[in-house]
Specification:
The complex is a heterodimer of chains A (334) and B (156). Chain A has 334 residues and is an all-alpha fold. Chain A has a domain of 124 residues: ATP synthase (C/AC39) subunit, domain 3 (Topoisomerase I, Chain A, domain 4, Orthogonal Bundle). Chain A is built from 17 helices and no strands. The longest helix of chain A has 25 residues. Chain A is globular, with a radius of gyration of 21 Å. The relative contact order of chain A is 0.12. By secondary structure, chain B is mainly alpha-helical. Helices cover 81% and strands 0% of the residues of chain B. In chain B, α1 runs antiparallel to α2, α1 runs antiparallel to α3 and α3 runs antiparallel to α4. Classes of the chains: A mainly alpha (334), B mainly alpha (156). Chains A and B meet through α1 of A and α1 and α4 of B.
């Protein structure tokens, strides 16, 4: 007991109590079976979302409720965590997301409503930085990435580089920090996310008919699947990718998800299986009594819950059949 | 006469170390309990019961210390003449509960913190959470038994 891990006792117990309020599969089932979007909302108002929903006047504005909830949960976990910097690493993804949205909106000359008010840097600050072209107030790594994006865009005029540069910065930073702070569980999470991102990139690039050169430039390093091996797959039929990953953890995911993608042209099953895969990984740390694992798991559980609510409500508003909503619902964490 | 001082070291270790084990254990459970109570104040009674469990090590230590103090006359009429040999015998007798009390208090606290997480989800399983902690308790009881048997064997 060289390091006192019991500093996590308070936060973990609190998160365990909070977990009991997470929506269960049965509640989603009832929402799916509701006759209208409003009925589905009513089911949701029987849960922890009641107070926020009471103030909602139009069902089409439900995104604000979800965004508020996500921000609240992040702030809460950050506040109770004895090492908030570990939770901050998880918030970085939202900074990157917001930067992507802002840059693309600027390059395409549009305004976007896809910003998420979570992250380590205030949204207003990010917005200001991108519109004013002044990145001095951003953290160093983001600043360098932003400058790189501007430089590259001046030359190539291709908004795609925004995603490429920012994803690389995100995962380089996360892996480096996880190692520095000796957080193997978080590193395991990021490595898996890199692998899943790379698999999706591979399929997408393959479908766009782009070159192997391009692919090896956009694949993220530091995953468990070697970049060269993945890049080589662009010239092979899909079956060889499936057989290459046959003995890896990703066998089922690729076997079902990738096959569906290439046959039906829809990535939604692969996206769902990827989310379920991460959920299964995080569940391994669910009962750690003293450690960051349950906190990370709870945040992810909340993100998945919000994603599921969005899937159901959007589906209900657009009057999709129950079956097609159901098949997109992610596994819940508890 | 120096035997008394050595025997008193035994008393100090039994009460001090076993008490520290309890204090740390109770502290650990208390932190977890606060986390749960901040979301679910109705479980106060259950958490208090769990938090009290690692207190027994301190009681065992105090009991052992008290027995020695009585033997050597610190509690009572007058001090008894002890040789160094007898003093060491008391010191040795105090060690089992001092050592096992310290470590079992801490580890029982860790088990009970997990039990707090357990009742956050399943309050009806409180009993099982206690049973796991009692398994740790066994070894504090064995240590106390050894300490008492050793004390009975000392001739003064």
């Amino acid at each position: 007991m060289l390091i006192d891990d019991t500093i996590y006792g308070y936060a973990v117990a609190r998160v365990k109590a909070l977990e009991t309020h997470l929506l269960e599969q049965g509640q989603f089932e009832r929402m799916i079976n509701a006759s209208t979007g409003e009925e589905a909302l009513k089911v949701l108002s029987e849960s922890g979302y009641a107070a926020a929903l009471a103030e909602l006047d139009d069902i089409h504005n439900f995104e604000t409720v979800l965004a508020d909830e996500l921000r609240y949960v992040f702030n809460l976990v950050m506040k109770i965590s004895p090492l908030p910097e570990l939770i901050g690493m998880l918030a970085l993804r939202y900074d990157i997301h917001n930067l992507k949205v802002l840059f693309k909106a600027r390059f395409l000359g549009i305004t976007s409503d896809l910003l998420i008010p979570v992250g380590s840097v205030e949204l207003a600050k990010l917005e200001n930085a991108v519109t004013e072209d002044d990145f001095l107030l951003l953290p160093e790594k983001l600043r360098r990435a932003a400058n790189q994006i501007i430089e590259d865009f001046m030359v190539n005029r291709d908004p795609q580089i925004v995603d490429l540069i920012l994803d690389r910065v995100l995962y380089d930073q996360l892996i480096e920090e996880a190692r520095e702070r000796q957080a193997p569980f978080l590193e395991g999470l990021f490595v898996r996310q890199i692998d899943l991102t790379n698999l999706k990139t591979l399929i997408r690039v393959k479908q766009m008919g782009l070159s192997r050169d391009f692919l090896s430039r956009v694949l993220l390093p530091k995953g468990t699947l070697a970049v060269e091996k993945l890049a080589a797959m662009i010239e092979e039929p899909l079956e060889s990718l499936i057989s290459m990953l046959d003995i890896s953890d990703y066998a089922d995911l690729v076997g079902e998800g990738v096959r569906e993608w290439s046959e039906k042209g829809s990535a939604s099953l692969l996206e769902k299986l990827s989310d379920n895969y991460i959920t299964a990984y995080l569940r391994e740390g669910k009962w750690v009594p003293f450690g960051v694992e349950p906190l990370v798991g709870y945040l992810w559980a909340k993100e998945i819950e919000i994603k599921n609510i969005r899937i159901v409500l959007v589906g209900k508003i657009n009057q999709l059949p129950a079956e097609s909503i159901r098949e997109r619902i992610r596994d819940v964490y508890v | 006469m120096e035997g008394i001082a050595i025997a008193m070291l035994g008393v100090a270790l039994a009460v001090g170390l076993a008490g520290s084990g309890s204090a740390i254990g109770i502290g650990i459970v208390g932190q977890s309990a606060c986390g749960l109570i901040s979301e679910d104040p109705d479980k106060f009674g259950q958490t208090l019961l769990l938090q009290a469990l690692p207190g027994t090590q301190g009681i065992y230590g105090l009991l052992a210390g008290f027995l020695i103090m009585q033997d050597i006359g610190i509690v009572g009429e007058e001090l008894i003449e002890l040789t160094a040999y007898q003093g060491y015998a008391y010191l040795m007798a105090a060690l089992p509960i001092a050592i096992a009390g310290f470590s079992s208090g801490i580890y029982q606290g860790r088990v009970l913190a997990s039990s707090i997480n357990l009742i956050a989800k399943r309050p009806e399983e409180l009993g099982k959470g206690i049973v796991y902690a009692v398994m740790v308790e066994t070894y504090a009881v064995f240590a106390l038994l050894a300490t008492i048997l050793m004390l009975f064997g000392i001739d003064v």
